[in-house]
């Protein structure tokens, strides 16, 4: 029997499920997600269960406990720390009589509130539609078949309200994908332009609320929204930075990852996440003060692998070192002397000069300092030197020769020498 779906509210009862598959999940994380969605957590019920119940995720006794706790606390909404199937949502709402929301629905709600760019809004709506497709059945009590044709009893059975909604949802889904494809083509064109100009791209990645946006603002002197909350930044932002050796580079700030990031979101944000997979270097930002920092590092690496970014070189950035008593050495290097991690604090600026040096070192590993001499007729080659952002100093000789003091990648130097030879 179908029923009207209970209306939502702002006061939420949290249900934390502790099982074998949620070692990283904590009551604090589900509370943070709830607050980030603009909701008010007012009570918490914990459930330890080895295997999920197929109908309600938790057992019948726990369902009654949740119902009593919700009524006692005057909760308007029940939020589970784990994902729920459409059947589980339906059964729980029927038993409790209040709106029930799983982990994916909660994260989608946060994303919907934070998306500001046109592309971000399209991506979130597409993910919401995909998530809602299997849940339409629970939102209607008027699913009777509409009669078709003119006159009493002349027409056959028409489509149900559910079928009409599914048809409209499918049409909207198709339209969103077409719009998103156009936006993605523009993004690909911008990326090709950067590749053509051989501009290095540095991507910030990490668990949500690790301080990526604050670090981004510090490195680029930008004013990207940063807050102590989950998914404070959703839309990707790119800014140019100058490095001593490598010259100009582009730094990109992307959406934060989280344990069991819904697959639908990864699919919807694939074009945005390509900024990470196509980057020259990934700055993997870690909250050094978090108790679960090692588990979170593994979760982020799992998502990076899923989007094809595991092959991109990484530099671990241990942020919030101001909150750690024994932070260890500022820079750690491997046996070959290559930097692998840096201790920083985006809040007070400690470690940032060392971070810039490490980024520069990793990107400009094949950069050399050299001097080339050009005649006045070789102005086009001179312009090329400036275009590559490689000129340290330009010295005019009395004889008219121009000495170009360059800091340049070896492959670009080879091209310049070839152009000089052929001139």
What features would you describe in this structure?
- The protein has about 425 residues and is of the alpha/beta class.
- It has 3 domains: about 10-100, Rossmann fold, CATH 3.40.50.11060; about 195-365, P-loop containing nucleotide triphosphate hydrolases (Rossmann fold), CATH 3.40.50.300; about 365-420, Alpha-Beta Plaits (2-Layer Sandwich).
- About 40% of the residues lie in helices and about 20% in strands.
- It has 13 helices and 14 strands.
- The chain has helices spanning about 25-35, 60-75, 85-95, 105-115, 120-130, 160-195, 210-220, 265-270, 270-275, 295-305, 350-365, 380-385, 410-420, and strands at about 10-20, 40-50, 75-80, 100, 200-205, 235-245, 245-255, 280-285, 315-320, 330-335, 340-345, 365-375, 390-395, 400-410.
- The strands form 3 sheets. A 7-stranded mixed sheet has the order 6-7-5-8-9-11-10, sandwiched between helices.
- Helix 10 (about 295-305) links the parallel strand 8 (about 280-285) and strand 9.
Short description:
This protein has helices at 27-36, 60-73, 86-96, 103-114, 118-132, 161-196, 212-220, 263-268, 270-277, 293-306, 352-363, 379-387, 410-422, and strands at residues 11-18, 40-48, 77-80, 99-101, 200-206, 237-243, 247-253, 281-287, 314-319, 331-333, 339-343, 367-374, 391-396, 402-409.
Determine the oligomeric state from the structure: single chain
Classification by helices and strands: alpha/beta
The percent range for helix content is 25-40%
Residues in β-strands, percent: 15-25%
Spans where pLDDT lies below 50 across 5 or more residues: 138-158
Q: Mind telling me the CATH superfamily name of the largest domain? A: P-loop containing nucleotide triphosphate hydrolases
- How confident is the prediction overall: mean pLDDT? 79
Topology as H/E string?
A: EHEHEHEHHHEHEEHHEHEEEHEHEEH
SS summary, helix count: 13
Over all CA atoms, what is the radius of gyration? Answer: 28 Å
Using DSSP, what is the number of strands?
Answer: 14
- What is the highest CATH level, the class of the largest domain? Alpha Beta
- The end-to-end span amounts to 83 Å
């Amino acid at each position: 029997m179908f029923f009207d779906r209970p209306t939502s509210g702002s006061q939420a009862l949290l249900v934390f499920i502790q099982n074998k598959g949620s070692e990283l999940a904590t009551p604090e994380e589900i509370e943070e997600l709830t607050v980030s969605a603009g909701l008010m957590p007012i009570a918490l019920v914990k459930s330890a269960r080895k295997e999920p119940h197929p109908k309600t995720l938790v057992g019948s006794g726990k369902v009654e406990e949740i119902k009593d706790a919700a009524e006692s606390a005057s909760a308007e909404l029940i939020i589970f720390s784990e994902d729920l199937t459409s059947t589980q949502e339906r059964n729980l709402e029927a038993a409790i009589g209040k709106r029930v929301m799983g982990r994916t629905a909660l994260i989608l709600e946060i994303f919907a509130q934070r998306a500001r760019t046109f592309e971000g809004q399209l991506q979130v709506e597409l993910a919401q539609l995909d998530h809602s497709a299997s849940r339409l059945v629970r939102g209607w009590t008027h699913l009777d078949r509409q009669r078709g044709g003119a006159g009493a009893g002349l027409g056959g059975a028409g489509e149900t309200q559910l079928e009409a909604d599914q048809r409209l949802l499918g049409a909207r889904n198709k339209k969103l994908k077409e719009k998103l494809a156009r936006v993605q083509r523009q993004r690909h064109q911008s990326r090709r332009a950067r590749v053509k100009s051989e501009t290095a791209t540095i991507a910030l990645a990490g668990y949500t609320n690790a301080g990526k946006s604050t670090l981004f603002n510090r490195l680029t002197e930008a004013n990207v929204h940063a807050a102590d909350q989950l998914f404070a930044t959703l839309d990707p932002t790119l800014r140019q930075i100058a490095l001593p050796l490598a010259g100009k580079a582009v730094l990109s700030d992307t959406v934060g990852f989280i344990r069991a990031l819904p697959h639908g979101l990864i699919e919807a944000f694939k074009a945005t996440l390509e900024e990470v997979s196509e980057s020259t270097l990934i700055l993997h930002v870690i909250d050094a003060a978090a108790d679960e920092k090692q588990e979170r590092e593994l979760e982020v690496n799992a998502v990076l692998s899923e989007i094809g970014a595991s092959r991109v070189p990484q530099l671990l950035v241990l942020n919030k070192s101001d909150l750690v008593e024994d932070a260890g050495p500022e820079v750690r290097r491997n046996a070959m002397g290559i930097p692998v991690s840096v201790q920083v604090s985006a809040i007070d600026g400690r470690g940032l000069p060392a971070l810039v040096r490490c980024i520069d070192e990793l990107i400009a590993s094949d950069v050399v300092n050299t001097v080339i001499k050009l005649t006045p007729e070789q102005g086009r080659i001179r312009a090329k030197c400036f275009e590559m952002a490689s000129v340290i100093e330009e010295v005019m000789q009395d004889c008219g020769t121009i000495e170009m003091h360059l800091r340049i990648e070896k492959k670009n130097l080879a091209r310049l020498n070839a152009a000089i030879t052929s001139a």
